[in-house]
Amino acid sequence: MREITGRVVPIVEAFGAVASALRGQILEAIDWPVRFAIAERFLIDRLAGSPDPPAAREWALARL
Prior knowledge:
Layout: H1 11-15, H2 18-28, H3 32-48, H4 55-63
């Protein structure tokens, strides 16, 4: 995340080729609630496929 912190990053740079399809879906959406729902579903699906964080991070966050 350091690479993109404080920057405006093209969606393709952040998410690769799959971003083109996402962009198309968002552009075709009829209103803002639908656009946000599409973006939210995309992010949830991406997170679901990612590895679990290290146990040490979970422990540290629980201590906060």
